[in-house]
Every structure is written in structure tokens, then in C-alpha cells.
Amino acid sequence: MIWRREIIAAVLIGVSSFAHASILDDAEDAIARADYAAAMKMLEPLADAGDAVAENDIGWLYYEGLGVARDEARAVNWFLKAATQGQPAAQLNLWDAYLNGRGVSPDEAKATTWLRAAADQRLPWALVELSFAHLDGRGVRQNPDEAFRLMQLAADQGLPFAQNELGWMYETGLGTSPNDDQAIAWYRQAAKNGNTSAGWNVEYMYRSGRAAPVDPAEAKQWNRKRNFR
């Protein structure tokens, strides 16, 4: 049925952006309910027409073997199509592929190039991974100050994982001056956003008296949440 996909792709070039977005939304809904075959059917015409989001999504399906046989080399080809159009999620996926040698030969330099490209677009998880790279000196110069700056950018976008990590950086003085008030503030924000580890950190900061003022009632509340989990 390739011919049918080609016809649909040609038609899609002229459809409104609203209809285009609606198809992408429907495909995402299909992925969410694990109906990968339906998602692929909707995504293929868009990807064939050059839609970067659809290209990345198809790449992800092949990368993970969802609804199709796992084919990491094919996945990388789709990621590359999307990434060269500036699609940040595809750029981050290429970082993972080159870092771990999935579908391509391992290449730390190329991995770092794609990670930087995604981070330059302020993709939260790319900022987190580039922050870790600067902490470890992996593919980039070791630079705790830059690691802190990048984690701050990710946390400011509301990523709970980054908010918890930023709290830890404030608590330990990694890349910044130690600041328990800032640490507890970021731990609490991350915990409110659902990060379990942050809830443990809130409980510890209150119980140990490192947060000011100490609030035994709130510490007890977080302790109950930790024990429940």
C-alpha cells in the first residue's frame, strides 16, 4: 500500500496546520494507549512529507521495537532526518545512539555535538544530560559552574528531576555556593511536582534542622509520604 501513503503525503502538504497537528495528536494518543500499528499508519504519511516530529516518532518506534521489528539503524536514519531540521528530541535521540552505539558505531564527539544542539534549544532533558557531562568531563571540559547553570535552566522549565538535582547542588555547593534555603526550596518544588527522591530530601532537611525555620509538623508529613512509598 505504499502508493496510498504517497498520495496521502502529497495531499497533506496542502492541508491546514490545524489538521496536521490533529493527526500528530491522534498518533500520540495511539502511542499512549500502546496501539503502535495505528500510530505508525498515521505517522508515515507525515514523515514521508518531511514532518520532523513524525520522523522522530517513527524513529523512536523502530528504536524501541514498538509495533515493528527493532531496527536501530533504520531508527537512526529517521532521527537524522528530523534532527537536521532542528527537531530537538531527535537530536537528543542521536546523542543516545552515538553514545551507546545503537544503530551506529559509538562516537562520543558526535554524541556531544547532537547533545549540544538539543541543549541549545533548551530541551530540558538535554540540558540535564549536558550538565552531567560537565560534571564528569565526558565529551566536554569538566566545569561544575557550567553544570550548575545548565541544571538551573532545566529546573526553571519545571522538570522535577532537574529541580531535585539543583537542590542537591545547592545543598552540596557543587558549582555554586552552599545554600540550604535554596536547597530546600528546590527540593520542595520538585517534591510537589512528583519527584519521590525530592520528598525524601525534604524530610531529611527538616529532620536534620538544616532548613530554616525547622518545621517538625511538615517534616513528619514528608516522613509519612516517604514511608508510604
UniProtKB/TrEMBL annotation:
SMART domains attached to this UniProt entry: SEL1
Keyword Phosphoprotein belongs to the record: no
Pfam families (alphabetical): Sel1
Keyword Signal: yes
Highest taxon in the source lineage: Bacteria
UniProt keywords, alphabetically: Signal
Name assigned to this protein: TPR repeat protein
Record organism: Mesorhizobium sangaii
Upper classification of the organism: Bacteria, Pseudomonadati, Pseudomonadota, Alphaproteobacteria, Hyphomicrobiales
